[in-house]
Design a protein that fits this description.
It is a single chain. This protein is an alpha/beta fold. It folds into two domains: 6-164, no CATH class; 168-353, no CATH class. It is built from twelve helices and 13 strands. It has a six-stranded mixed beta sheet. It has a four-stranded parallel beta sheet with strand order 1-4-2-3. It has a three-stranded antiparallel beta sheet with strand order 9-10-12, with no helix packed on it. The protein is globular and about 65 Å long.
Length: 357
C-alpha cells in the first residue's frame, strides 16, 4: 500500500511542504501551527488536542480522528522526533486505508512503545523491529525523513507477512509464566496497588538482571529478567510494589502506571500528579499520604538504606536516578549501590494496603 498523505519531520533540513491543513502528531505543534486551520493530535503534556479525540497513545488519538471525521481533510502530517508511537501516529495518518485494517495491531504496538504495555503477535513484532531499527538510525546518522520511510516499509512488511513467534514474544511469555506458577508472587494489596515479590531462590544468580530498569522504547531482550510489560499484562492501571529478596536484605521499588506521564483520557491517574508547564518539563507528585508512608518506613528502617521518594519525573530521567521512570519510590542508594532494607515484606505490604488516595 503506497503512502497517501505527505509528511514532514520538524527540525529536519528539508523544506517544509506547503499545506491547506496540517495535522501535528505526537510531540507538540511548533511555531508554524495555524490556529483555526491546523490540528494537533498528541498525548504529550501540554497539548492542543480536542477533547473528543483524546485517548491513550497518540496513535490511538490519530485513529479516533480518522473514525470521527468523514473523508481526509488534511494534506500534511508533521512530527518532531523518532519513537514507536510517533512513527505509528504518522503512519496512521499517511496510510489511513491500510492502518484502519490493522488498527488493533498498531494500537497495541504503540502502547508497547510508550507505556511498556503487554503486546504479542504482530503488535509486539512492530514494536520490537522499530525499536531495533532506531539503534541503526543512531549508528549511521540517517536523516529522520529517510528513517521514517524505512520505518513505514518495515511496518507494512510485518503487517503483510504471516506471523511467526519471535524471541521477544518467547521472553515475555516465559517471564509471565513465572507469575502464573508462583515463582514470582503476585498479590493485590488494594484496588490500585499490587505487590510482585521475587524470592531469593528465584533471584539467586540473576540479581543484576532483576534489579535493572527498562529504558524508554527499549527492545525486549535477555538484559532484564522481569520486564514491566509482564506486570502490565494484568496490572497496567495499578501501582506496582516490586520487592526483591537479596542476600543483604530487601530491595523495594514502587512503580507508577507507565502511562501517567501522558495525557491519557479514561486511564486511572495516581493522586497528586501536577502536569508540567512546558513540554519535557518536570511532572511533580504531591501525594501527602504517600509521603507520610515513606516517612514511616524511614523511621522503621534499621538497615543502611534510605527510602527515596522522588519529587516527580521528567523525560530525561534526571530526577529518578539511579532508577528510571516510572519508579517513584526506591530503596536504591543515590550513589547507585544496593544497601538492603531490613524491613520484612509483610509490614511493608500492610502499610501500602492502608494507602488512600
Amino acid at each position: 500500500m503506497t503512502q497517501e498523505i505527505d509528511f514532514y519531520i520538524e527540525g529536519s533540513p528539508d523544506q517544509q511542504p506547503s499545506s491547506v491543513r496540517t495535522l501535528y502528531v505526537d510531540g507538540t505543534a511548533g511555531n508554524g501551527f495555524r490556529k483555526g486551520i491546523d490540528g494537533e493530535l498528541s498525548h504529550w503534556r501540554p497539548n492542543k488536542t480536542e477533547e473528543r479525540y483524546k485517548a491513550g497513545t497518540s496513535t490511538e488519538i490519530c485513529f479516533r480522528y480518522l473514525q470521527l471525521n468523514k473523508g481526509i481533510d488534511y494534506d500534511l502530517v508533521i512530527n518532531n522526533h523518532l519513537d514507536v508511537d510517533g512513527v505509528l501516529s504518522v503512519f496512521v495518518l499517511t496510510h489511513p486505508q491500510v492502518a484502519l485494517k490493522h488498527m488493533d495491531v498498531l494500537k497495541d504496538a504503540a502502547g508497547a512503545g510508550d507505556f511498556w504495555a503487554w503486546a504479542e503477535g504482530k503488535a509486539l513484532k512492530v514494536f520490537q523491529e522499530l525499536s531495533l531499527f532506531f539503534r541503526e538510525v543512531k549508528a549511521v546518522k540517517m536523516s529522520l525523513r529517510e528513517a521514517y520511510h524505512q520505518c513505514f516499509a518495515l511496518v507494512l512488511k510485518i503487517l503483510d507477512d504471516p506471523h511467526k513467534a519471535t524471541e521477544a514474544e518467547q521472553i515475555l511469555k516465559s517471564q509471565y509464566r513465572l507469575i502464573e506458577d508462583g515463582t514470582i508472587i503476585r498479590e493485590e494489596l488494594s484496588q490500585r496497588i499490587v505487590s510482585y515479590h521475587v524470592p531469593q531462590k528465584t533471584l539467586l544468580g540473576k540479581e543484576e538482571k532483576y534489579l535493572r530498569t527498562a529504558k524508554f522504547n527499549e527492545p525486549v531482550s535477555q538484559r532484564l529478567a522481569f520486564w514491566p510489560q509482564v506486570r502490565n499484562r494484568r496490572d497496567a492501571q495499578k501501582m506496582h510494589l516490586v520487592s526483591y529478596e537479596t542476600e543483604i536484605g530487601m530491595h523495594y521499588d514502587l512503580y507508577l502506571p507507565a502511562y501517567c506521564w501522558a495525557d491519557t483520557k479514561g486511564l486511572w491517574q495516581p493522586p497528586g500528579l501536577i502536569p508540567p508547564i512546558r513540554t519535557e518539563g518536570m511532572q511533580i507528585m504531591r501525594w501527602d499520604n504517600l509521603s507520610k508512608l515513606v516517612a514511616e518506613l524511614n523511621a522503621q528502617e534499621q538497615g543502611r538504606c534510605h527510602w527515596n521518594l522522588f519529587p516527580g519525573f521528567d523525560f530525561a530521567n534526571t530526577i529518578n536516578n539511579p532508577r528510571d521512570f516510572p519508579v517513584i519510590l526506591s530503596t536504591f542508594n543515590t550513589r547507585s549501590s544496593v544497601k538492603g532494607s531490613k524491613i520484612p515484606l509483610e509490614p511493608v505490604k500492610d502499610l501500602f494496603r492502608l494507602l488512600e488516595d
